Structure formats: C-alpha cells, structure tokens
Amino acid sequence: MPVSHSATVTYSPAYTIVPTYECFNRCTYCNFRREPGQSPWMTLWEAEKILLPLQSQKVCEILILSGEVHPRSPLRQQWFERIYDLCELALSLGFLPHTNVGILSFTEMERLKNVNVSLGLMLEQLTPALLHTVHRHAPSKLPETRLQQLIWAGELQIPFTTGLLLGIGETQDDWWETLNAISELHQRYDHIQEVILQPHSPGNQQSFDWGAFDPHQLPGVITKAREILPPDVTIQIPPNLVTDPQWLLACIAAGARDLGGIGPKDEVNPDYPHVQEQALKTILQSAGWELVPRLPIYPQFDHWLTGDLQVAVEQWRG
Ligand code: SF4
C-alpha cells in the first residue's frame, strides 16, 4: 500500500571537489587513490573554474574529498591549507562545504569547523581483524584513531556524518558493534547527523578480490541499524550501489531516509554512475515517497555554526 504523501526521503544536491587523489594509505578495496606525488593538487584557480558554473545549477553542497598526506610529511601543512582554502572559496561563492579528508588532528578539525557546515569520516568497521587484511597497509584505519575523530567532533560541536563499509571481510557481529559505538557516542555528544551504510562494490582499480556485498542483505541490516541507532540519526544509502529499484525501495521501507550527495560522479566508486534526481524521484514516487533536497547540515545543528556560516545556511533555508 502506498505510504502517505508526507513520507519523504532526502538527498543533497552536491558536487565533489578532490584536492588530491594521492594517499599514503593502501586500502586494498580502494578505487580512488594514487601514489604520493602522482596526483597534482587542485589549485584554487582550477576549483573556481569548476565552481562558478555550478552557481546556476541548484548545487548546494561542495563535498571536499581527498586522499591523505601523512601527518608527519613536510607537505602536510600545505595539504591542509589547500583544503582550508578550497572550503573558503566554496563558501565565498555561496556553497556549503562538507569536508571528508581522512584523519585530522584536533587543531585541524577545530580550524575546519570555521569553513564547513559539517565534517565526515567513515568508521567503516571497528574490528581490528581488518588490520591484517584489507587495512594491512593503511595506518589511518586504526579503529581507535577513527573513533577518536568522532569524539573530537563531539567535543568541538561539529555536525558529523559517519558510516559503515559493508562486505570487506567483517562479520555480522562486527556491524552491530560498530553501530553500537556510533550510537553511544551520539548519546554522549548529540552530533551524528547521519550514518551511511555503504555496500562494498568492486571497482576496476582495487586489488581486493572479493564480490560485491549482496544487496538483498541490506534491508535487514538497515532494520537492525534502525533499532540500534537513536531515532534522530538518519540512515543513508548510496542509490548508485543499490541499482535494483525494488531493493532500493526495500531499503527505504526498512528505515533508510537519505540518499546522500547526488552529483555528476561518485569519486569513491567511479565505476558506479549516480542515478540522477529525476530517475530517483520516479522510482520513489512509485511507492509513495517524495524525494526532497536537503542541506549538508541538519537544522538541529544550525546553532553550532559560527556567525558567517550561520548566515550562509539561513540564506539556503530561505
Ligand atoms: S580508501 Fe581512503 S584511506 Fe584508503 S587508500 Fe583509498 S583514499 Fe586512502
């Protein structure tokens, strides 16, 4: 039976800017990274050329997504400043930045709060078992280091997006453990706006020889995640990784209420093109759901923003 017209699913009209694809980690499922030194950094001039035409295209969120420069690299400060400047540029052109660039120091997070409406970092999975497999050469994927980022975001009152990567060699119990950890931190700090459940979807570049996460399992995971997570934490699924419309609708029926940033390219999963807004609207309408755009910050967090950012968000809320 169709649900009532008030049932809404959100998405963020977004564009992804990649300061650099270089990354010192080597996660074996990665389809994004380049070797350090092999990916020229985006200049502000190049970014401006990309951003200016987007002003007339209903894009609100600029997702700043980067590979990581090692914290002790002599280039780290320069890398961070480039990210900061790109955020500032996006803001000055009327967009709302959301940055997800891996592990940051407390001070770096504190500074990025001034030029971002929210930050993000996938927790992926907390089990240390993955440090012997897919994360063997990925020092940033230490579970305690990632949990620390969520704690600092809470202490700094930064609205935060995190999530799980499903199907990289973990067990079902590992899912519930990771979700429980997110839930506990949210109950302490009230700062998690959404949790992404991202099914592992093999791409052309990765060395991890493992099949895709079975999408038929996803509604069951969402149901259980909905039980574990506090009700004010939204569950997000990436629609380009759940390509069968019936299973997408099953995920929504199970409790997912957000489809994330929709833009021209999924930089993390470049082999899986985004389904565009109109096609998603049609799929959702067939089951009585309305697809509505949202900002990269949920309204309950607006009061955490500093002055200029609050004004920028107010303008978008109209
Ligand atoms: S998944 Fe992220 S951290 Fe891992 S290698 Fe790729 S870009 Fe680096």
UniProtKB/TrEMBL annotation:
Gene3D superfamilies: Aldolase class I (3.20.20.70). Residues 9-240 form the Radical SAM core domain. Binds 1 [4Fe-4S] cluster. The cluster is coordinated with 3 cysteines and an exchangeable S-adenosyl-L-methionine. Keywords: 4Fe-4S, Iron, Iron-sulfur, Lyase, Metal-binding, S-adenosyl-L-methionine. Pfam families: Radical_SAM. Its EC number is 4.3.1.32. PANTHER family: 7,8-DIDEMETHYL-8-HYDROXY-5-DEAZARIBOFLAVIN SYNTHASE, FO SYNTHASE (COFH). Belongs to the radical SAM superfamily. CofG family. Catalyzes the radical-mediated synthesis of 7,8-didemethyl-8-hydroxy-5-deazariboflavin (FO) from 5-amino-5-(4-hydroxybenzyl)-6-(D-ribitylimino)-5,6-dihydrouracil. This is 7,8-didemethyl-8-hydroxy-5-deazariboflavin synthase. It comes from Anabaenopsis elenkinii CCIBt3563. The gene is cofG.
